[in-house]
Amino acid sequence: MNLTELQYMLALEELGNITRVAERFYVSPSAISQCLKKEREEQGIPLFRYEERHMVPTEAGRVYLDTARKLVQIHDETYQKIGAASEKGADEIRIACSPVFEDDFEKKILPEIRRQLPKTNLTVLPLNAVNALEYMSNSMAEMALLPVPSEWHTTMLEEDVLGENHLQLIVPRAYLHLPEGKTPGVEDCETIPFILLSRNSLMRTYEDKVLVQHHISSSRIYEVSNYLSCREFLESGRGATFLPVGFLPEESAGHFYRIEPTPKLAFRNLLLTSSIKKPDAVQQKVKRMIEELWKDL
Amino acid sequence: MEAKMDLRNERYMSALAMEGSMTKAAKLLGISQPALSRWLDRLEEETGCRLVIRSRKRLVLTQSGQIYLEGCQKCLKEASLMQEKLNSLRSAGNTRRRIVVGGSVARGSKAFASFYADFIRTYPDITLDVDFDVNTGLWKKLLHGEVTLAMLGATQTEMREVDFMKFLDEELLLMLPPGHPLGYDYSQLPKNVAYPTLDLRKLQDTPFVVQEKETSYSHLLYQILQQNNLWPNVIFRSNMIPLLYDMVKTGAGAAILPAAYFQPDDGISVFSLTPRMIVYQGIGVRKDCVIDEPIAFVIHRIMNSWGSPYYMHRYADYYLEQRQIRSVVE
Do B6 and A1 touch (CB under 8 A)? Predict the structure, then answer.
């Protein structure tokens, strides 16, 4: 099944005649009938049958053609979007944004910038830190908004500290049977599953540090790509996880223990720009606005 | 438009994004790494833009690459939905389809009865059967294809030939019969407090009723008894867990049983083991089994009737979705 073959089959439905399909695509009729035969074999069920010297789709054929139409449509949409995305507009600013900030950024910061700078075209790229840094160093993003461990530094980028925060270990109450009044510690989590960031993330080494220090080697570890997924997995009761302070909705707090881990997992919320290519006036303005608006979050 | 979007492109792209490295993706797809690399070059030429940053550490998708990947995943999903529909059309022409559910006589039969009527009403063309057996027997029947899916107990969730969808974690508790000298009054125990523990060596003289080796966690039981230096005086063995519980209740002896059987009004004293023992209940299917709508129906209904916590039901959805993605890539 490929796009050309799908288009042959869609044309066959429309025209009902192999010869006329061949004429439309400037190929030989045998190419069309071979394609029909191949699809029939691949799917293991006839897709067309003859009816009064016309080819009409069978029930299976209709299922196949519905899918074919969808695939052609997805294909066209995809290529259109790729074309639009690959060219950077003159006034475009692409901001790589960690999924942790995405919601706040889109709702509270972006509308205000758009209001003040209506001509600037702002694109938000949701990316985790490692990928965002890769985008920055390949000139595929002008700015990045990321949480990074406090000891992490780079000379390639201009760091602008928006704020500081740290990680808490969040454990579903159902997983820990503790006597009343006892506050749980990291060491109580020995037998429960953990939801951790994937191995290539900046924060994972950080999380591992805590687990190693408390001699926890969980046999069940789910690896996810960002804190949003961590939270989702946590809320569906899959195990314990680390989350930035304030990232767990208040109303669900009753279901979880919050443990302050040692060593403290401090990180900084950074706004990164290139230190080689100086930002232009508009970019400067956007940068200042983000700094200002961030304070109100 | 000249560029082809055959499903090979889609499969390769998904594998690349999932594995995050050329080498690993090539291995997953069963092709050589240079071949995969050539494919990517050609694809980038066709689409006219860079899709992937080939970084030293890890492969990163560009913005266009991300869009292309999303398109691919949509296509694969549509294709797999089509396969599913065609499958049922193909089999409709053949003989009547039969789904066999395996389970235990105790809890398995209850679950089966709870959804049987709904199933035959929803899928009148499919025969639904049940096969009762002990846990080890169910595993064997599952591997040999004698049952389509089975409700199983297990002590681990990763298995080579079987996909295990866990829907319940259960703690194994030590249960002492009413009136036992080491017992306590459960109703006096404050709420939300962990079960007490007990030095097992004190039970040297207490008679025990125990599971036979066909029960999924029996090896763990022997292990934990040995670790605690207890060589129990076993007076009775059975795989019927409700029977063992009733024997504790009537004072025959102590037993180690899943927490679900414990009824606070029975006068039984329960204790956590050290370390705490958790076993799983779940549904097993063979890795090569195609989970279509009727089978998914059974899976969901088993989870519902078992009284497992709500988040585990969502796990079933998630699991089925993951499984579908995996099977498409493979």
Answer: yes
